[in-house]
Design brief:
Blueprint (H helix, E strand, L loop, with lengths): L11 H12 L1 H39 L7 E7 L4 E5 L6 E9 L3 E5 L34 E5 L2 E5 L6 H11 L2 E6 L4 E9 L7 E3 L7 H13 L4 H5 L7 E5 L2 E5 L3 E4 L2 E5 L3 E9 L1 H27 L11 H5 L3 H12 L7 H15 L18 E3 L8 E3 L2 H10 L1 H9 L5 E2 L7 E2 L7 H20 L17 H53 L1
Antiparallel strand pairs: 1-14, 2-13, 3-10, 3-14, 4-8, 5-6, 5-9, 7-8, 10-11, 12-13, 15-16, 17-18
Helix pairs in contact: 1-13, 2-6, 2-12, 2-13, 6-9, 9-12, 10-11
Length: 526
Amino acid sequence: MRISGFASGMDIDSMVQQLMKAKRIPVDTLGQKKQILEWRRESYREINAKIVDFRNNKLFNYNKAGTFGQMKAQVSGDTAAISVKADGSAINGTMSIKVDSLAEPRTTVGEAFIKKGSEIDVTKKLTEQLDSFIDDSLITDQKYTFSINGTKITVNPSEMSMKDIISEINSKTDVQAIYDEGKGALLLTTKQTGKNATIEILADPNDPNDPNFSKNDEFLKNALGITEESIKNSKPGQDASLVINGVSTTRSSNSFTINGVSITLNAKGSSTITTSRDIDKIVDDIKSFINDYNDLIKLLNDKTREERYSKYKPLTDDQRKDMKESEITLWESKAKSGLLKNDGILTKALADMRLSIYSEVETTGSKNIQQITQIGIETGLRTDLGKLYLKDEDKLRDALTKDPDAVIALFTASPALEPSEAGSTNMVQKPEKTGIFQRLYNNLKDALTSISDKAGTSAYSTSLTDTLKSDSILGKGIKELVDKIRTQNDNLSMLEKRYYRQFTAMETAMNKFNSQSSSLFGMTNG
């Protein structure tokens, strides 16, 4: 038990706190070192997320087959007759199309099952509208089952409206149903077009000997108007009839693809399709890549050149108590600044990125297009620190017009793996034969691996909250400091207890002395 300084008149708690304050300085220093490592690790995590996003998302999409070599298809002649869209596999050229007739679906018109002059509310339960049905004997609370082209449908008139029945058919089968209010009947149309489109509606089970067959068959005929006669009189589907480049042909669908061009037939007419490189799209993609590249370059440059304010140490708990929140924020922004200044991993990543961009690409294309400077892309001033600029768009467009494959190869070439050197089993893509996108992709993998080793990040995640691997260099350093802080705190706790024991002993001795003095004083005065 601690004894207050009644005998000595001293503030023992205050004295112990002052003694401990000096002793805690080494622990506070360790805590500041730990905080710096944690901040540095978080900085790596933020940069890692940006690199992963650039490499695994943006760069991957730029390099994806067809993305950077988009084609475009344009229609002349009867422009309303067809719609077209080209993908990356389309080839330059023209195609003539004459549409004689469109593909059509099979259509079945059911018999009327609503009385003439009557109407039904398609949103109300069937059993609530019995008077409107020609035959209401089957509009009960029973369940009826039938199949449309092999898909089973179950109807309960006491629980379902006409809208519910139609929704069930439309969502589950390959047939589209609508209710014709004027005729009081169902209209069924196949979702597919062509002469082979079918509509087969059967009571379920389709066995006349089954006791349920009769009621389900009667429900189809009398309650929904789907009779053998209506099925028999269905309007059959038909194939589209057209002439492509002078050759007559048919298609079961109005939408199809030829040589990478998706074509949709809209109406009769004669049209010409012209397919060519979509230079506008490629230029836009290159501009987008330049912006994304520059954003990452700027981030890495900013971090490696950020001012370090060495006098701004992480704040201790005692220091925070005497500061406003705004002061703490300002202080910590200074304390966090420059933690990755001249960082070896980031400076190497910057160098690798620049090398990926500026080195020649040995492709099978034009010898005049092996560097970005040959297509109008250059760096800015020295103060721009490696940022790219499209300084001559006309030069880029001219290159894309004259030799688009060479321009695309400059960015997207991805050669087969080769031995890294003669006799080696280490298979790599030779950098000099690899396009800019793949070079960046490969080199940034090295950066992500190094950051992971240093900070415990993932080379595949952009998350800023995922748990970091504890066996990283910084993770081990933080753990070592945590262990030291724990040990020193244990020692300080024991030291504090010793101080209190010493002061307690002093107080006890002084109490005893005071008691003896009082007794002597009493005896003398007696």
